[in-house]
Amino acid sequence: MKMDLDGAVMNENHDKLPQDCQQIGPDYNFTVHAGRKYAKEFPEYVYAYDQREWKVEPCSRITVTLINDDSVRHQFMLHGLPMYLYHQGMFHMEVNGGKQKTGTFIVPSTKRTYFVHCDMSQHTEKGLRGQLKVNGGSGDLVSIPGITAQAIPDPYDVQWDWMHLIILALAAIAGVGIASGLLRRLIKENSVVPVESKQ
Ligand SMILES: [Cu+2]
After folding, report:
1. How many angstroms does the Cα of residue 103 sit away from the middle of ligand 1?
2. 128: CA distance to ligand 1 center in Å?
3. Rounded CA gap, 150 and 113, in Å?
């Protein structure tokens, strides 16, 4: 593991060949940004990677630079790699706010879609998800922003048509009326009773 004040890179692999590979395939370099601004186009999410899908050849060597554009920590965590090469079958980078980290791993030849996410509390659910397809992949994963639908959608079915705006305006006017009435009563109740009334 490499770790410093900018973050950490775990289970890097620059040269160990997966058992099903004759040689290391093509090299890929991906620069991936993580941050709230990349989720702006997806109202159902808070965070996103600027790219959510990567496609590579069998036995590729992949170098990822993760740039964190937020102030909270973000990760690039990939699951399902061979256990004999990667502890817990995982390649993992974690980057502090405003920093970046670069790490390298080699994938097997198998047709497979690997899950990429940020495992910080709630960040996966809030949109930091992606997929790496090796050799064409084995299908799409769910809830990848911009690629597949949410597994459990949040319905926000408010429609801002004129009728809703008029109702909202009437409610606001009524609210102001009630508030000013209450305020007047409060002032009246708390005001000092004139001295002459006690005589
Ligand atoms: Cu995160």
Report:
1. 17
2. 7
3. 18
Contact 83, 7 (CB under 8 A): no
Distance between start and end Cα atoms, the chain: 87
Gap from CA of 196 to ligand 1 centroid (Å): 69
41 with 59: CB under 8 angstroms? no
Tens-of-pLDDT digits for all 199 residues of the chain? Answer: 889 999 999 999 999 999 999 999 999 999 999 999 999 999 889 999 999 999 999 999 999 999 999 999 999 999 999 999 999 999 999 999 999 999 999 999 999 999 999 999 999 999 999 999 999 999 999 999 999 988 877 776 666 788 888 999 999 999 999 999 999 999 888 876 655 655 5
Sheet of 2-4, strands arranged across? 2-4, 7-10, 90-95, 74-79, 112-117, 129-134, 53-56
* C-alpha pair distances (Å), 115 with each of 128, 130, 142, 165, 178: 11, 6, 10, 43, 54
pTM metric for this prediction: 0.76
Q: How far is the CA of 3 from the centre of ligand 1 (A)?
A: 17
Q: Quote the ligand 1 centre to 120 CA distance (angstroms).
A: 5
- If you measure from the C-alpha of residue 97 to the centroid of ligand 1, how many angstroms do you get, rounded to a whole number? 10
Ligand 1 center from residue 28 Cα (angstroms):
23
